[in-house]
Amino acid sequence: MSLSPENSNDRRLSLILLFAATLFASASLMFVLQPMFGKILLPLLGGSPSVWNTCMVFYQTLLFLGYLYAHLISTRQNTHRQVLIHGAVILVSLLALPVAMPENAAPPTESNPTFWLLWTLLIAIGLPFFVVSTTAPLIQKWFANAGHHTSHDPYYLYAASNAGSLIALLSYPFLLEPNIGLDLQKADWSIGYGLLCLLIAGCAFALWKSHRLNPIVEEAVGGDNGLSPYTQLHWLALAFVPSSLLLGLTNFISTDIASVPLLWIIPLTLYLLTFIIVFSKWHDAIHPWMVKLQPMILLPFIAYSFINPAIIPYWVNLALHLAAFFIAVMVCHGELAKARPHTRHLTTYYLIMSFAGMLGGMFNTFVAPFVFNGVYEYPIMIVAALLLRPGLKLSIGAEKLDWLKQALFPAVLLVFGIAVYLGIGNLPEYLDTIGVGLLVLAGLLYAFRSRPLTLALSTGVLIFFTMGLHGLLSNTLYQERTFFGVLSVRESVLTDEAGRPERFHEFYHGTTKHGAQRINSDQALTPLTYFSRPGPIGQVFSVFDNIDQNWEIGVVGLGAGTLNCYAKPTQSWTFYELDPLVVDVASNPKYFTYISRCNPKVNMKVGDARLSLEKEPDQKFDLYIIDAFSSDSIPTHLLTQEAIRLYFKKLKPNGILALHITNRHLALKKVLADHAKQLHYDALLQEFVPQQEIPLVAATDWVVMAEKPETLDPLRASGLGRWQKLPITFGLKPWTDDFTNIVTIWK
User: Which residues of the chain have pLDDT under 50?
Assistant: First the structure.
C-alpha cells in the first residue's frame, strides 16, 4: 500500500530528520552492541577471532529474521496493524533489559563451543537485537508510505543507517572502550535502546497521521510481481560474496598477517563504508571507476600478497588485502545498488540481502572450518567477486564457441602449472624463476578485465598454484583448523655445531611460532625458542634449582610442551590449555617428544585457565607460569587485576608468578607495571636478546612477580640476565574485568 502520487507533496525536512535519526540510532546501537558483547564473551573463549566471526553469524541471522519480519508485516498487514504489532514486539523486548550475560555461563571444554556461543547470545541479547534489526527495512517502508515528496526512492536513508553503523563501530575502540567500563556500557546501551523505541513511536505516529489525512491507494499484495528468478539470484550472489569475504579476510588477517583484535574492525568498517557510498548520490560517478580499478589493484595484490608476501612489511601486505577487499566489495555492492527495485519490492530486496549475508556468515563459520584445514574460503571468494563484475550475464549467455574462448587461457594456465610442478625436481632451486613467471602471468590477467569469466578462472588457477607452492616449500607435516585457529607443524633444517644438516619441527598457531624441537639430536630435549635455558624462564629455573625439588608448578598454555623439559621427578606439573587439539599435537611423539620423554605423567586440564584455576585449592602452587597466546595475542582477561589477584590467591606466600609477554604490537609491560604498583607486588622484567646467535633461541620478554621482594632477591643477585624494575606508568587506567583498552599500550 502507498500514498497516491498526487498526495506525495509533503516537503518537511523534519520528517526526513525523524526517520533518518531513527535509522541512525538503530544502526549505532547495533554496532555498539556487537563489539561490546564480543568483548564480554572473548574472555570465556581465549580471545579467538572465531568468537568474533561466530558473533557475526548470530547478528546476520537475527538481521535476516528481522528483515523477514519487516517484509511479512509490511506486505500482509495494513498500516495500522503494522504499528500495533510492532509496538507489541517492542514492549516484549523491554523485558530483556538491561542486557547482560546469563548467570553461570561457561563454555564446553571438550567440544566445539560454537553452538553454546550462539545460544548464549540468543538468551542475552536476542530480543533487543531482533527489534533493532527490523528497523532499517521497516522504517524505510514506512517512509515510502508517509507521503513525503522523496518517498518514491527512500534508499538514500540506507546511507544514514550505515553512517550510524560506521560511526558506532569506530567510536567503540577509540572513544567508548577507553573511557567507559563494560557495566556502564551495558547500562548506557539499555538507555539508548529506550530512546530508539521512542523514535520508532514517533515514526509510527507520523505514518499513522499521514494515512489519516491523505487518501490511500491499496496495492495488490502479490509480493514479487516483476522480479525474475535471475534478478533475485543475482541480488543473492552480490550480497553473499562480500559477506563471506568480510569474515574470510578477518580470519586471514588474524591467521596470516597479524593477530591483533583491533584490526578485526577494519574490514567491517570498510564493508559498511561501501554501503554508504553505493547508496549515496555519488554512486553513479564512482561505480565505473571501481570497476576499472579492480583488475589494476588485483595485479599487485596477487603478485605480492599471495605469490611472495615475505618481501614486503606486514602493514603493506595488510594494506594490499584491505584495498583489494574494499574495491571488490564496492563493485559487488555497486552492482547491487544499481539493481535496486521499485519501493513495492523494497522489503524483498532487503530480505534477500540479509539472507545472503547470513548465508555468507554460515558458510565461513559452519562449513569452511569443517571442509578446509586453512583459510581457503577467502581466496575462493576473491575469485567469486571477479565473476560478479559487469558483463557476467553476457559471459554466461554466450555461445559454445565463446565459452571455449573464455576457458582457453585458464585451461592453458592450469596445464602449464601442472607441467611445471611435475617437471621440476628441486623446487627451491627454481623459486626465483617460478616467482618471476607467476608475476608475468598476474600481469597478463589485466588483458581479460572485460571478461569476468576468464579473469576469475585464471585468477583462481594462479592462486591455487601459488598456495600449493607455499605449502610445499613450508614442509608442513600437519595442519588442522579448529574454532581457535589454524594449527600447523612444519619441518625445517638447520646446520648443527659440526656443520651437518639437522631437522627440527616448529609448532605454529597462525603465523606465530609457539615452540620448536630439534629431532634426532642429543639436544632434542633442550628447551628452545622463548623457553631456552639462556632466556628468562631458563634463568628462573636455574636460580631456584636447589630449592624447587618439590615445587607444585602450574602453566597456562601448552604449545609444543617445551616447558615440560624443566620438570623434575619429584615436582608436580599441571598444564591448562584451551584448545584440545593443542594437547593432541603436543602429546604426539610423531611431532614433538617434550611430553612423552620428559614428563609423560603431566596433568592436563582443557578449558579456560581462569575458570579452571578457580576450582583449585588456595596456596597450591610454588610457581605459576602464564604462557597463553592466541596466535600473537595474549587473551586480555588473563592480564586484568582480578586475574593477577586470582593467581596470587592460588600461589603459596613465597610463590612466584612468571608471565610471558613477548608481543610484536602491544607493550604489555605497562599493564603489569601498573598492576604491580596498584596491588603492591614486587616485579622484575627482562627483555631478553641472545648475546650470540644460538640456533632456535629467540628474543623474548618475561615478567616475574612476587608478594615479597625477598622472594625475587636470588634472581636479582644471580647475575643471570638483565633483570630490571618495571617501567613507571603515568595516566594508564588499570585493566580490570570491566575495563581493558589495547589502544593505550600500542607500540
Answer: 1-7, 215-224, 399
Cell digits for 698?
Answer: 629467540
Distances (CA, A) of 225 to 77, 221, 307, 673: 18, 9, 48, 67
- Whole-angstrom distance, CA of residue 28 vs CA of residue 344: 27
CB atoms within 10 A of CB 587: 18
User: Is the domain 507-745 a CATH 3.40.50.150 member?
Assistant: yes
Phi, psi at 48, each rounded to 5°: -70, 140
Query: At the topology level of CATH, where does 1-221 sit?
Result: Growth Hormone; Chain: A; (1.20.1250)
User: Whole-angstrom Cα distance, residue 705 to residue 691?
Assistant: 25
Q: Please give the full DSSP string across 77-91, using - where no structure is assigned.
A: S-HHHHHHHHHHHHH
Q: Tell how far CA 256 is from the center of its chain.
A: 12
What whole-number distance in Å separates Cα of residue 731 and Cα of residue 747? 16
Tell me if 481 sits within 8 A of 576, measured CB to CB.
no
In this prediction, residue 222 carries a pLDDT of 43
Domain residue spans of the chain = 1-221, 507-745
Residue type, 359: L
| Beta bridge mates, 120 | none
Q: pLDDT, tens digit, for every residue of 238-289?
A: 999 999 999 888 877 766 655 555 567 788 889 988 988 888 778 888 989 9
The pLDDT, as a whole number, for residue 224 is: 46
The residues, any chain, with a CB within 8 Å of residue 526's CB and separated by 6 or more, are 518, 532, 533, 565
| Beta strand spans in 510-647 (E) | 512-518, 552-556, 572-577, 603-606, 621-626
Residues 152, 8: contact at Cβ < 8 Å?
A: yes
**What is residue 409's predicted lDDT score, i.e. its pLDDT?**
63
Q: Which three cell numbers stand for residue 315?
A: 602493514
Give start and end residues of each alpha helix (H) in 388-515: 392-396, 400-423, 431-444, 452-473
What are the strands, taking DSSP E only, across 232-362?
Answer: none
